[in-house]
Amino acid sequence: MDMRAIVLAGPVAPEELRVRTVPVPEPPDGWVRIKVEAFGLNRSEYHLRAGLAGNARFPVIPGIEAAGTVDLAPGGEFAPGRQVVAMMGGMGREYDGGYAEYTVVPASSVIPVKTELDWATLGALPEMLQTAHGSLYTGLAIEPGQTLLVRGGTSSVGVAAAVLAKERGLTVLSTTRNPDRVELLRTLGVDHPIVDDGNVAAKVREIVPDGVHAALELVGTNVLPDTLRATAVHGTVCFTGMLSDSWTIPDFYPIGYLPNGVRLTAYGGESSDLPAEAFQRYVDLVAAGRLPIRIDRVFTMDEIGAAHRLMEDGGAVGKLVVRISRPSH
Length: 329
Hints:
Elements: E1 2-6, E2 19-23, E3 31-40, H1 43-50, E4 65-72, E5 83-87, E6 102-106, E7 110-112, H2 119-124, H3 126-139, E8 147-151, H4 156-168, E9 171-176, H5 182-187, E10 192-195, H6 200-207, E11 212-217, H7 224-229, E12 231-239, H8 254-257, E13 263-266, H9 276-287, E14 295-299, H10 304-312, E15 319-323
Parallel strand pairs: 8-9, 8-11, 9-10, 11-12, 12-13, 14-15
Antiparallel strand pairs: 1-2, 3-4, 3-6, 3-15, 4-5, 5-7
Helix pairs in contact: 3-4
GO molecular function: NADPH binding; oxidoreductase activity, acting on NAD(P)H
Protein name: NADPH:quinone reductase-like Zn-dependent oxidoreductase
Domain Enoyl reductase (ER): 12-322
């Protein structure tokens, strides 16, 4: 049996991405074959497609997440037809990922879920919620009543982090480089939208004179010193994202780089960092309209080039999703 998939033979421009026909993969024991209904796009897939990923192997089907139903689980971990999502664990890098009609992943990367949400919405959630949840709780150990700065607030993870933090009872400051997006951040519940002109620390301290308790860095190392300056003594900055593609700190000298008493952590975790019960609770909150996750646009598989172009150009606010459509028989 064959399926449709996007296969990367090496680095290409977005417009060179093509849907191909390949055999449906067979799952070994301990792995699960998922009939994919939707998958979200992620920055790491742009890095892979553009040749910026150091651990890439080609050819590969990209995609670090997917949503769908269990098609086959030889080990009996999940019943066929079970609604699930999958993410991380080497998807789309070490083995073929979610940019396909079927994907085979380790059972440990699969999270069961039960929801009436449409597939495109569910497909937007796994990696976005996992990264936001892990950054907030593992990277920053947030607590109700704290102040949080989200640097890169209109990215999909930035949007998710803001709404999860608000749900937890934090006061949220969130940045955008585009003044036209300030009101959009307000509608998502951000208390203090900030236009990022490169000097966010000064603007933050006008609002919170002693600095924020926690800061989530999603832009990159190029703005990290400014984010650190926006953070209070004994506050924590979590480095999670690299929207600017600035990954490393040249000639890192900790005493000169880190403000006194400000902690710097990082997060790049796995699906196990998002317990099934926490994911189900977030999905239920989304379904109830209490967690305003934003999807920028839903594409078909044949529009994957346009989707990657929009992601690379930073033109989206929130998540980009591809919905798998199959001919009816």
